[in-house]
Specification:
By secondary structure, chain A is mainly α. The first copy, chain A, is built from nine helices and two strands; from the N terminus they run ββααααααααα. Chain A has two domains: 9-61, Homeodomain-like (Arc Repressor Mutant, subunit A), CATH 1.10.10; 73-211, Tetracycline Repressor, domain 2, CATH 1.10.357. Chain A is 68% helix and 2% strand. Chains A and B meet through α1, α6, α8 and α9 of A and α1, α6, α8 and α9 of B. The first copy, chain A, binds a DNA duplex through residues 15-18, 21, 42-44, 52-59, 63-64.
Amino acid sequence: MTRPKSKKIENGKPVRDAEATQAVILTAAEEEFAQHGFTAARTEAIAAKTGVAKSMIYYYFKDKEGLYWAVLKRSHADLVQTLQKLELEHLSPDIALENFLRALLDCVSRNPKLPTIMFHEAVQNQGKYYKHSDSVSIDAALIAILEKGVSEGVFRQLDPFQSAINIMGTCLFYFIGAGNIQQFPQGKRLLSKAMLEQHTQEAIALILAGVRQS
Amino acid sequence: MTRPKSKKIENGKPVRDAEATQAVILTAAEEEFAQHGFTAARTEAIAAKTGVAKSMIYYYFKDKEGLYWAVLKRSHADLVQTLQKLELEHLSPDIALENFLRALLDCVSRNPKLPTIMFHEAVQNQGKYYKHSDSVSIDAALIAILEKGVSEGVFRQLDPFQSAINIMGTCLFYFIGAGNIQQFPQGKRLLSKAMLEQHTQEAIALILAGVRQS
DNA sequence: TTGTCAACTGACTATTCAGTCGGTAAGGAG
DNA sequence: CTCCTTACCGACTGAATAGTCAGTTGACAA
């Protein structure tokens, strides 16, 4: 858990620590890529956030694209792993859906930059980097739950494919707008713990009520 | 309705038409900004799409930012106008909500690039350009409907602010992912007329079921 | 026909940015 | 202490990109 936020200073003196430096760069890059996407992200801005020289990016990650890959990989790992180990097959569809949503929302609440990174990737690069198994399987899992729910009559007649997209939107859109909609509620920050928990509840409630057979 | 798609050619000969040229540039810019956002958009790429010289951008729009403004303004005008002239106050909340959603979805179905443009603007520039009245009022209208519905007992106990964001997400996420999720259904393009109509239905059904008092 | 103005062009410039390279020094091994 | 490896630095370079400008061409009026 030795993960310094910006520079790598330990008890007053700067230390030469390859791992720590890489982690610092990755974190700074995550922020920059989340806000600007690959093309508009500036390697100099990333370096400035870290406190190490810009050339360290190229030393550890070869080039801008290598750094981008590394960020995508690290960001995604948590999400994919969490959702894959859920074991939802034996559960009734409504419970499975709730578990799935709670895991998803927990994950992105922990790393709120992830949705923004994914959307930049999707829009700018048409998701080239994700065509290697990842996010596809996430959607597939959700679609499977919905299909089962419809066929068992637990859910109303809905199109699983369309609904999966819309459900993901309900969960994730919040995080995209978060940077934008700071002025809205009375001083409440959208990414505060309380608001994130409320969003989790509200999103789950909306979705479960929305799909259930009435 | 004289809006040529790329060059400005009329019965075989290129014409000098200021208005048409501006329109051509705006359309090309809309595409470029939608895919890449302000910073990553290339003025040369925009010019290449139009067939006119790059310098025309500066001739008519002063600079890249001026062009960006013009695109945001034109894209938004339709949406804001449509939603403002809805007159929903006298309707019951559930009908008002359905009308609101149908108008919103019609609008973005007509201009599917709009959500992506808004997304880029929100994330990259924290919505600086929208802090001039526009999208704020859209959310406000939706929140008002939800508040009324809750207080009248037509809708279940939900947080109007949170739910407004989530509802917008349900409607708009589809368009953001559209570029990405082309491989998914069996050859169906997400932006085909049939799929857009289905999305409108599915989104409205999900939301109405989701908010209604059960 | 001629003059004028506005639409339009393409080559040019200044700047910004990704990526490089020669060199420095920390710190462990012998 | 002396090497030697490697983390690290900052000035540099070449390519790309926003923005400019001097000049050309087409339309229309007089």
